[in-house]
Amino acid sequence: MIVPVRGRSPFLPQALDAILAQEPAPSDVVVVDDASEEPVTLPRGAAGRCRLVRRAARGGPAGARQAGLEALSTELVALCDADDAWEPGKLAAQLAALGAHPRAALCFGRATVVGPDGAPTGERWEEPEPGFLDQADLLPLMYDRDPIPTSSVVLRRDALEAAGGFASDVPYGVEDWDLWLRLLAAGATFACEPAARVRYRRHGSGLTAGRENLARGSLEIHERHAGLVAPGLRAVVRARDLTTLARGRIRRRDYAGARAALREAASHAPLPPRERALRVLLTLPGVRGALGRRRPYP
User: Are residues 141 and 265 in the same domain?
Assistant: First the structure.
């Protein structure tokens, strides 16, 4: 299995403890230091049970995972980010699911979203139907949004390599979404195992923290994979990405940029009432300064 990490990672000990406590535990755990300025060291207790691979140049999560893949020889490849953690029984449930669904290229599970203190944030993650999911079931949903917690995924190595591996040049934070769509484009099928649960951690230094970053990543993914879905869905999704981009720009007090994004969004699909009202508020200097003051996540 692969755990990418860069820089100081206060949650890495928790992640590795949860991985090594699985029954059965992964046969090989590779922690990839993505060219941290200060080299990563394995926590006490994990050093004898994990391997540490250090990249000479930063490659982001995709590059780090690819380095981990090249260091592994296992037929199954499990993922966990350094700030997340597996729940007890997670891996055993997925091994059973992959045995029951031999055509599935990957198995994913469910996530409880927690904050830096480990307390649930109340955010709900998308939960696709459990069991075997074919391309027709997943493509519209997967293009619309990414419902797969990366740290819950176990992949079959042959399907992963056939789709080009982890390597991706999309923006940091959406490289996993790009992989799921590449797998589906190649005809892969997935399995969802609800008993495979992880704790997904939201925090300010995370790669997906901030609406503008999320919007830019989504726009890139949707442009690259536009040929997989019908034009109507492409238009609706692009309009939503642009409204998210507008709200991210509001946080930076870039009101002109926010108005431009909303104007373009309206050219793709009718704006909901809330976004129409936002366009008006952005023209009022005495009001717009109060917009966008909420934290990105609850």
Answer: no
